[in-house]
Amino acid sequence: MKVLQICNKSPYPPIEGGPIAMHAITQLFFENDCEVKVLAMNSNKFFATVDSLPEDYKKSTSIEWVDMDLSLNIFQALRCLLSNKSYHIERFISKDFEKKIIEILNQHTYDIIWLESLYVAPYVDIIRKYSKAKIILRTHNIEHKIWERISLQSKPFYKKIYLRILSKQLKNYELKATHKVDAIASISDVDKAYLIDNQVTTPIISIPFSISVSQSNTDVQPIDTLNLFSLASMNWIPNVEGIQWFLNSVWDDIHMQHPDLKFLIAGRHTPDSLKNSTYPQVEIVGEVPDATEFMLSNGILIVPLLSGSGIRIKIIEAMSIGKVVITTSIGLEGIHATHKEHVLIANTASEFVDAVSYCLHNPNELQRIGKNAMEFIQKQHNNTHVAPKLMSFLRQITTT
């Protein structure tokens, strides 16, 4: 099966959620004997260079990029507002990218054209014109839900109103786009159910983010440093919003009860507001060279998401190596784990304080929950279980 994978950012290097999820799909295709070509946008928000990629990856994917500037353009934003178009989408429309798609489709024939995220959906019409391939939309999130939730958390009334308008415009585009493709591969059952509830009749399959994990490995590494840590890309608004809420509304109470406990905040693109903060026992680490090593060398992962959609990659990765995760119900969406069995769920400041205290007062529970988390990921988010489901769906789509 020949696949053209079109991405709104480079899948490689896989160092933040979106690229990690895209790269995982590329690997699934390779493991199932598909021939894959990758076309990606290369922007100021996530820029990849030829030198940063391994030779075998460049050769196997024949990856090509088109440079794009996704910086905020106030004039374009105003024009979209007045014309009732989604600014979120309009930013990703590029004549150069369209030309590259046409060039590729004139040179090669594909069975599947896999669109990574809603932000490359504007190119469906041009793809239809130059290819008979089946078009699959991979939804990483229900994008407008993220902005609806962010608007609810916003304080200034003018910002709240503007974000509501943006989310409504994005919703209109998103639901229309789902009817223009041949099939949808949602990243979670929650997102799939939402689309069905909103009268999307396009065939949908839930393909969760999955990783290569060993069924035989169920040993949880002992925690040498019992602390709290966060690991998330800080150029995504829900991540910054959640960490800021945790620091302002939760951390003082935790620090009062456990004055020696440290909280390490790691992630790319840490804003200056956090870098310059002076919360007691809080260390701003910034970008780390090895995410897995960082997680293994620290204690309990904190994911205090108040908005967002889709599935949290870092939670799955942390659970796969036996880390205990404390997160909100929103943070756990799409991951069917159970409170106090695989993870700890906290939705309020007091619940976060209680969850942290529970971990510190019950060290044996960290081993039990960590072991359960690892076994859960081995069963629910393992490539060996997900790949057959995906390939069967694609064969069905390409033969109809």
What do you see in this structure?
It is built from 17 helices and 13 strands. It has 400 residues and is α/β, with parallel strands linked by helices. The radius of gyration is 21 Å and the shape is globular. The two termini are 15 Å apart.
Class per helix and strand makeup: alpha/beta
Task: State the CATH superfamily name of the largest domain.
Answer: Glycogen Phosphorylase B
Neighbour order of strands in the largest sheet:
3-2-1-4-5-6-7
**Number of helical regions:** 17
* Total number of domains: 2
Question: Into which percentage range does the β-strand content fall?
Answer: 15-25%
Low-confidence stretches: none
| Largest beta-sheet details | 7 strands, parallel
Feature tags:
alpha/beta, 400 residues, 2 domains, Rossmann fold, six-stranded parallel β-sheet, seven-stranded parallel β-sheet, single chain, 46% helix
Quick summary of this structure?
The chain is α/β, with parallel strands linked by helices and 400 residues long. It folds into two domains: 2-210 and 383-398, Glycogen Phosphorylase B (Rossmann fold, 3-Layer(aba) Sandwich); 228-380, Glycogen Phosphorylase B (Rossmann fold, 3-Layer(aba) Sandwich), CATH 3.40.50.2000.
Topology of this structure?
Blueprint: E1 2-7, H1 17-31, E2 35-43, H2 55-61, E3 64-68, H3 74-83, H4 87-90, H5 95-107, E4 112-116, H6 124-130, E5 134-139, H7 143-153, H8 157-177, E6 183-186, H9 189-197, E7 204-206, E8 228-231, H10 237-249, H11 251-257, E9 263-266, H12 272-275, E10 282-286, H13 291-296, E11 300-303, H14 313-320, E12 325-327, E13 344-345, H15 349-361, H16 363-380, H17 383-398
Parallel strand pairs: 1-2, 1-4, 2-3, 4-5, 5-6, 6-7, 8-9, 8-11, 9-10, 11-12, 12-13
Helix pairs in contact: 7-8, 11-15
